[in-house]
Each structure stands twice: as C-alpha cells, then as structure tokens.
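Late entry, NAP complex.
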Amino acid sequence: MTSSTLLDDLDTRDGVRRTAVVTGAARGIGAAVARRLAADGMAVAVLDLDESACAAVVEEIRAAGGDARAVGCDVADPASVTAAVERIAAELGAPTVLVNNAGIIRDNLLFKMSVEDFDAVTAVHLRGAFLMTQAVQRHMVAAEYGRVVNLSSTSALGNRGQANYAAAKAGVQGFTKTVAFELGRFGVTANAIAPGFIETDMTAATAARVGVEFEEYKLAAAAQIPVARTGRPDDIAHAVSFFASEGAGYVSGQVLYVAGGPRN
Ligand code: NAP
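Prediction complete; structure with ligand written out below:
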C-alpha cells in the first residue's frame, strides 16, 4: 500500500478528514498525542514554541504515511495564537480538533514563589488554553463539529510546591466545563484529561530539582500507584484519541484522571 493510499483510508474512516492542533507537541505527551491523532487519520498541526523543534515529530508522522505541519507559536501570546491558527486553517484545513497540552512548571513553596513564576505558569496553561480555544472555536462552530481536549493534572487536587501549577490545572477544569456548556449546541465537546505521573522531560526535571535519579524517582512514584508503574505519553495519547473521536460526541465536560488508580 502506498503512503497516499494509506492516508486516504485513514482520512475516510469517519467520512471527513479532520485537522487537529496539538500544542506543546515537540516532545513528551504532546508528541505522542500528535503521532496518535495522525495515526487516527487526522492532519496534525504540531505546534510548539520553537518551530524547528517540531521537525522530528512531523517527519515521523509523514514517514508513517500521515500529514503533519510544524507550527511555531507561543500559546500565551494573543497575536502569536491568532497568526498560528490562521496559518493552520490555510495550510492544513480548518481545525476542528484542539488539544491544549503546552505546559511549563516553576515549582516552589508558596512562601518562596515569585509573582513572575506564578504568572508564567498560569499564562501558559490557563491563558494559553483560553486563547487557543477562542481562536479555534470559530472554525468548529462553522463546521458544526469540534473536539477540545485540555490537559489538566492530578495536581489540580493540590500539590505541595505547585501553588501556581495546581491553580492553573484546576482552572483548566473549570474552563473545560464552561466550553462544554457554551459550545455543545454547535457540535463541540470539551473534556479534560488529568494525568498522574508520566515519564517525560517535565517529571525528569522535577527529579533533578529534588536531587534524585530519575529511575529512582520513578520507582518511588510507582510504589504509590495502584497499577504499580508510572505512566507513559502513549497512556495519555490513548485517552485523547477517545475524546477526539467522532464517536465521543455525547461525552462532554468530563475530567478523566489517567493516573493508574482512582483520584477525585
Ligand atoms: P514537556 O515534556 O515539558 O513538554 C511541554 C511542551 O510544551 C514543550 O515542548 C514546551 O516547549 C512546550 N511549551 C511550553 N511553553 C509553551 C508555550 N508558551 N507555547 C507553546 N508551547 C509551549 O511536558 P509534558 O510532561 O509532556 O506535559 C504535557 C502536558 O501534560 C502539560 O500541560 C503538563 O502540565 C501536563 N501534565 C504532565 C504530567 C507529567 O507527569 N509529565 C502530569 C500531569 C499533567 P519548550 O521545550 O520550548 O519549553
């Protein structure tokens, strides 16, 4: 089978070829999500701060017969978001699937946390999700179809050293439910995924910050997790694939904890 034939088959699985935007997709969870949505038959905008950092993920998707485009964008910046979404619509087609995944951490105990670190974290996670969703929603409303998937975290339930991140990730849940209320009548669903410990550069950085080898850090985390292992980016990509699918149209405003055990 040629790659174009494979792509044609994938594209017609749901009858329509969808364009998906995945933010923070140059690495970690976002990269796994981009690969998965491409395998599901979507054209994928691999969006990250540094466009050149997206090249490897784009190449991987194309090598597997999919369609992807690297897009440089700062999700916290309104002008950058507007330009990126316009470019995606022109080059890949109107986006009707959006995964708000871009994120940063600036952990510190409350009494030591700077205003700059509080604002930086809420800007990327919360303002970023707001700006991206606002820019993409008009394409979804016009298509009478949309899937918004936002990355929250188990830290939304509160986590020592993460006042900024926990507040942002709890905010993402409220934002998600509001989008579900406002856009449901236009065929748009919005759901949040709240991962527990996932093996990425982000958790490796946390291990480094507390002075523990990553392998040791993962083993200690796994000991507290009911399924007795830490998570992988593909665990999250699988959940995103479900929420982003055509068949999930009656599931909206939900928060799914993907953490190897129950959370609430
Ligand atoms: P990661 O490996 O650190 O990747 C995050 C990506 O987001 C990076 O490529 C980063 O680019 C990009 N990014 C940062 N600021 C951005 C901005 N302003 N505009 C566009 N892109 C930006 O993180 P991850 O572990 O895959 O996490 C992905 C998401 O899952 C995050 O929202 C995170 O909070 C959430 N999450 C992760 C875990 C976990 O255990 N890993 C658990 C719960 C939730 P640069 O490399 O240029 O900074």
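Confidence is low (pLDDT under 50) at residues 1-13. Will revisit in the morning.
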